[in-house]
Amino acid sequence: MIKLFKFIAIAEGISYLVLFFNMLVVKPTNFDLYKNLLFPIGMAHGLLFIGYVMLAFIIRNNQNWNFKELFLVQLASLLPFATFYVEKKYVRNA
Prior knowledge:
This protein is mainly alpha-helical. The protein contains 4 helices and no strands. α1 runs antiparallel to α4 (82-89).
């Protein structure tokens, strides 16, 4: 389960960055391509986000996270690059 969380954390972070890239780089240059990419990228990111949040709750006891650590892990899902930090710092035993 922890290896799955590590994978989801990295994939969620990458999908977040790809979503930003689509919004900030593709949209101003090619609006039609932006519209075509928005749904699949957004859907993938949304599913990975939900998986990240759910798996964080599932593995919190295994990782011995207190409320503050769980809160920081959950907060990381909202910040770019933060899931990479969580994967390195807070996920043990994998």
